[in-house]
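Dear V.,

Thank you for sending over the compound details. I've combined the ligand you provided, fe (ii) ion, with the protein sequence from our construct and run the structure prediction for the complex. I'm sharing the raw inputs here so there's no ambiguity about protonation or stereochemistry in the SMILES, which I know was a concern on your side last time.
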Amino acid sequence: MTRPPLKVIAAAQAASERLADRHTPFIFNDWYVAAFGNEIKDQLLARTLLGRRLVLYRTSDQQVVALEDRCPHRSMPLSAGTLERDTLVCGYHGLRFNAQGNCIEVPSQSTCPQNVGVKAYRTHERGAVVWIWMGEAGEADLSKLPDQDWMVDPLWEKSQGFLSLQASYVRLHENLLDLTHLSFLHAKSFGTPDYAKAAFQSELGDGQFALLRNVVPTTLPPVWAIPTGLTGQGQAARIVRSAFRSVGIHEVSVTFYDCQLPESERPTFRIRTAHMPTPETATTTHYFIVHGRDFALNDPDTTQFMHDQLFVAFNEDVEGLALQEQALANTPPNELYEFSVAADAPAVAMRRYLLARQQKETPSASSTCK
Ligand SMILES: [Fe+2]
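Below is the predicted structure of the protein with fe (ii) ion bound, written out as structure tokens.
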């Protein structure tokens, strides 16, 4: 047996067509991370989000401005211009735009045309990150941004980082809902052999998908064992919830405790990781990460140790997903098929949801996204 019979491949291909993938047009009516707040200063930052070129800057009253990065006069990127008193001056012919994107000055004439400008996007800074609504600014709905209380809670010690992913954001969301890969892709970092075989439960809701896994008893990898002191063989419980919260954020919550102590005597240690993928293009993704813990507070050495160890693991995902993307891109479409297993249930449901969201938003969009 090598490849399955053609009718089995055809059925697998038909099932895949009901899932979002790198060909699915983007979902614009939602919140995505545009940048970490500390990236945006009183200077121009060019960034492509969801295939749209934007220019970002911070005004003197600390508001984050996000504008379309193309002068409507002769299409010079506005990010190649200058920022003057909270307004943006095009570097080609000097047209000036205010923070709302309106053209307010044309140097070569005394009057400025009315109703000419660039698209302005709604932004919302919360904790370390700046969120952006990629649809029409007037339709921005803060109630659609999942709560992230721990990310703004000073009692959670936090660190942050960024990775450039050469793969579709859909596959990153899928990766995060499929933690069986910890035993393999992360065998040398934070995975353990028992992880893939541990019992799991799926939670499939309306736009909310989660995978729960209790790995008990287990031996913790150094990234968790050293800061918690749970260094013994088979000493620890590792209780994991991986949750797709929205198209812009996936949250992993983990509780550790000493499973050899009675419940009343054992301290618990909690970590959370916000994985925030923002598509750049169909096959490249800005990968923003905030990690937090509720123990070893005010301990910068532990923060640095955990951050370094975690990013070894997150880089394994980035490298693995880039290889996967290359394999997908280099397989003739008629020969490409994938099959799913039981542990894929939350990821399959999530990809169906993304496709349904996109089709509802732009029913006439083509099925290809470049
Ligand atoms: Fe991973």
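A first observation: The chain has two domains: 36-133, 153-361.

Warm regards,
I. M.
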